[in-house]
Write a structure and sequence with these properties.
Length: 110
């Protein structure tokens, strides 16, 4: 299995939806920053939001196990890449997921 590079592409804020349904003072995700990079092994990387991890884990797992493309080859132009988004309706964050050449250490071998 290979590690997957997770890059924060863009944080957005849906002000119109937040104005109607959100709490006062809500803004773009304050936990992540555009351009921030994480490397995924077996578990959620330190510092990455657990909710975002749950939204993209299935793509990460597939990439770690050698998948080249998703959805009948008509989704992402680059092989071994996926674009994912967290499911926060007020402040979604978009991520680029890329397979690396680095192996994930086997936790059973110590």
């Amino acid at each position: 299995m290979k590690k997957v590079k997770i890059t924060v592409l863009k944080r957005e804020f849906k002000a119109d939806i937040a104005a109607e349904y959100g709490c006062d003072g809500l803004g773009p995700c304050g936990r992540l920053k555009d351009g921030q990079v994480f490397y995924a092994g077996i578990d959620c990387p330190p510092g990455l939001c657990n909710t975002a991890w749950k939204c993209m884990h299935q793509y990460i797992f597939a990439l770690q196990n050698g998948v080249e493309s998703f959805f009948f080859d008509n989704w992402c132009r680059q092989p071994h890449t996926a674009i994912a988004c967290c499911n926060d309706g007020f402040r979604p964050v978009y991520f680029k997921l890329e397979t690396t050449d680095e192996d994930i250490p086997n936790p059973e071998k110590k």
